[in-house]
User: Fold this.
Amino acid sequence: MAMTHTLTPTADLATDTEDVARLVTPDGERIADPELDRWVADVDAAALRALYRDMVLLRRIDSEGVALQRQGQLALWPPCQGQEATQIGTARGLRADDFAFPSYRETGVVFARGAKPADYVLAWRGEEHSTYNPYDINTASQQIIIGAQSLHAVGYAMGIQRDGTDQVAAAYFGDGASSQGDVNEAMVFAASYGAPVVFVCSNNQWAISEPVTVQAKFPIAGRAPGFGIPSMRVDGNDVLACLAAMRWAVDHARKGNGPAFIEAVTYRIGPHTTSDDPTRYRDKEEVERWKGRDPIARVEALLRAQGEFDDEFAASVAADADALAAEVRAAAQGAVTRDPITVLDNVYAEPHSGLEEQRAWFGAYLDGFATEDEAVAR
Assistant:
């Protein structure tokens, strides 16, 4: 069953926030959608509070990451403020044994999959290659090569087919990555082989300093049917709609119907990374307008309207966020940076002459920066 919402070709449709499927308005009003409602019929007030808590904790991890980078504890951080609903909603639609393939900005996906506090910061500090063991949380290392993870996800999904299991792979990427050959090639393979993979495009309006209108004049979700892949365009700031869309997509793939595609229309409130200055290419009015569509605030408004949000709950969530932030901060500040020469450790199962030559060359190079005592010790 194709769930593609009608996509009317109008000006600037790539950025349109009205031609999307949604269940909660920016004001926090619960509205009906005949295609989405059945996928979240089980989401009661307790489940909605859990989604709210997830988003608040994610935002706190994100703000802590930015602060740690500014303090010199991390080399870089890719903020995800404003995209909490897309990440939490879709990630919570996966089963524990499904496998996620996130990009560098999907901190929320990693969080929802069960990452530990140190897992958010050690890679960005340069201490570990991938921080967590991907098989511990069924989540690949966050990919910084734009769009490459889409190919990895399809390859994994084709492996699922050969294993004869009913897992699903999920590839996460941004609107800018949709212009990469990798993403389009992944969609060709997924459609041709009927691979059980879900493509999640977080259309956050900006690919570094290029607006989405440079990447696409029409909705990105409209491309998928051209590959033979059903798609849906949802309000990426509506966590309930994102959860529903992901459940539909996962169900479609899990039943052997092939891949599905979700375009979540959202916004990157902060910079592309902490090395970026978005004020050079974005209007302040645009940012403020999107802040008014905040994904966390709309769920709070909905819960308050239902009488399910009070001071006690707010304090509990705030305390959880404070505790998690402290653990993340301690993980970064307590990390012990290893000697640079150890980058050659554990490269091969067995030592060999080529590796020893590289170690000797690199050691001599490092000695050029070392004091006499350090060079002798090495």
In short: Residues 5-11 have pLDDT under 50 and may be disordered. DSSP finds 14 helices and seven strands in the chain. The radius of gyration is 22 Å. The longest helix spans residues 45-70.
